[in-house]
Design goal:
Blueprint: H1 5-14, E1 49-54, E2 67-74, E3 81-90, E4 94-99, E5 117-123, E6 128-140, E7 143-153, H2 172-175, E8 179-183, E9 207-212, E10 215-219, E11 241-246, E12 257-263, E13 278-280, E14 287-290, E15 298-303, E16 310-312, H3 315-318, E17 337-344, E18 350-357, E19 374-375, E20 389-391, H4 393-396, E21 399-404, E22 417-419
Parallel strand pairs: 3-8, 4-7, 15-20, 16-19
Antiparallel strand pairs: 1-2, 1-12, 2-3, 2-6, 4-8, 5-6, 5-9, 6-7, 9-10, 11-12, 11-21, 13-22, 14-15, 14-17, 16-20, 17-18, 21-22
Length: about 425
């Protein structure tokens, strides 16, 4: 995961929004909507726990298999704050990103070495999130991170430059959420590569220095301490990772499913590893997956709550029929198919995984949480370095999944690792 921005943010966050591809996400809600829609429930008594919810997202978006939480932003050092709901909880990316149009605060701009305002071009599978980098005090539940670099997603401050390629995902309908809460395994969203000189081939060029609202944005180097950062690592305590806990989903799906997001691993009585198996990540940030479980073929893989499905292989390799038309990013087997795989780590730890793949075209239109939504992995097998398995949100149902942050001390040793 140290081989550049595309692997670190692009594929970790990239595949995070494989979730956002396909017609299954954007469904207008015509069925009866429960009166509690959008309510993640009362805040738990413990300061390191916040409610999360799998529901259709912000009103009328119709986001399938998106897990959301609320985040409070404050003007640094003040009590002038704003709480924003329905940020996508994403273990596959790093950093807080909020729609610029939703933020009513006067947040100071992060600046480059030359004193000009910073902006960022963040690649996802669906397109590119462009917008200014700001500084905010961030509160999530009872935890706080002061002076955090975050991204506001939108073009209100600066037009998206031609050097920032990809389809813009800069508003509610294109992003499908009010923002992204990236709580992945890394301290910053890009890392050492973005600290290299702007003209270096080692710098993937996501950060821009902007001189005016209508242009004049050019690629710039940004030191680690000034990049968009993991909010959890900036907490005073409970800062070594997260645990995402979701109940199982009934067969046929559910309109909404409540969950919990815990901060810290082994830092409080409520966040111990217990009997969870620990899977250290390799140098690229991946674990392995053998498929089928009793076969000899193995692939690179990662766990990503920001992906709304289980994305793996392609139709030719998996033997599962792909859908057509606006559902082409998903699988449509003739009947729900039971499969097995084995997740393994570089230290030999392994676990058998049983999962199902349903025909997405036949899923209940009044349900937005499914454990059997799957599709082919974007880019596999043609794009060099693309992992073959993205264990998205369906994997998280019925489990407590631990995500440890690089270099942070935990009871199982320093991160990064996944555990479940």
């Amino acid at each position: 995961m140290r081989d550049g921005f595309v692997a670190r943010l692009g594929l970790a966050a990239l595949a995070a929004c494989a979730a956002c591809s396909g017609g299954s996400r954007d469904r207008t809600i015509y069925c009866p909507v429960p009166p509690w829609y959008g309510d993640a429930g009362a805040a738990p008594a413990e300061p390191n726990v916040v409610p999360a919810i799998v529901d259709p997202g912000p009103q009328d978006v119709g986001y399938t298999n998106g897990i959301f939480a609320s985040v409070t932003l404050c003007e640094p050092g003040t009590g002038n704050c704003q709480t924003l709901n329905h940020l996508l909880v994403d273990t596959g990316s790093t950093g807080v990103r909020v729609l610029e149009s939703e933020v009513k605060l006067n947040l100071p701009a992060a600046t480059s070495a030359s004193g000009q305002a910073l902006a960022e071009c963040t690649p996802f599978v669906d397109g590119t999130a462009w917008g200014p980098v700001k500084i905010a005090d961030v509160r999530i539940g009872g935890e706080a991170a002061a002076g955090l670099r975050i991204q506001l997603v939108g073009e209100l401050s600066y037009a998206m430059p031609s050097a920032c390629t990809g389809t813009p995902i800069t508003d509610l309908q294109s992003l499908g959420a009010n923002g992204i809460l990236g709580v992945g395994t890394y301290l910053q969203d890009c890392g050492p590569a973005c600290a290299q000189p702007a003209r270096s081939v080692l710098n993937p060029g996501p950060y821009f220095s902007c001189s005016n609202p209508f242009g004049g944005c050019t690629v710039v180097a940004v030191p680690l301490a000034e990049q968009v950062a993991n909010p959890v690592a900036a907490f005073a305590v409970d800062n070594n990772g997260v645990i995402l806990q979701l109940p199982a989903v009934p067969e046929g799906g559910a309109f909404s499913v409540p969950g919990l997001l815990f901060f810290g691993i082994g830092t409080q009585a409520n966040n111990g590893l217990g009997s969870a198996s620990v899977f250290p990540l390799d140098e690229r940030g991946y674990v392995g997956t053998a498929f089928p479980a009793d076969g000899t073929d193995s692939y690179t893989a990662y766990l990503d709550s920001g992906s709304n499905g289980l994305y793996f292989l392609d139709e030719a390799t998996s033997g599962i029929r792909s859908c057509s038309g606006n559902l082409k990013d998903f699988y449509c087997p003739a009947a729900t198919t039971n499969l097995s795989a084995r997740i393994f780590a570089i230290d030999g730890t392994s676990a058998a995984i049983d999962f199902r793949v349903a025909d997405v075209s036949k899923l209940d239109v009044c349900a937005f949480a499914f454990d059997d939504l799957a599709g082919p992995m974007p880019g596999f097998p043609d794009d060099t370095g693309v992992p073959a398995f993205d264990w998205g949100l369906p994997f998280f149902f019925g489990r407590s999944v631990y995500v440890s942050i690089e270099k942070q001390s935990t009871p199982a040793g320093p991160g990064p690792y996944f555990a479940f």
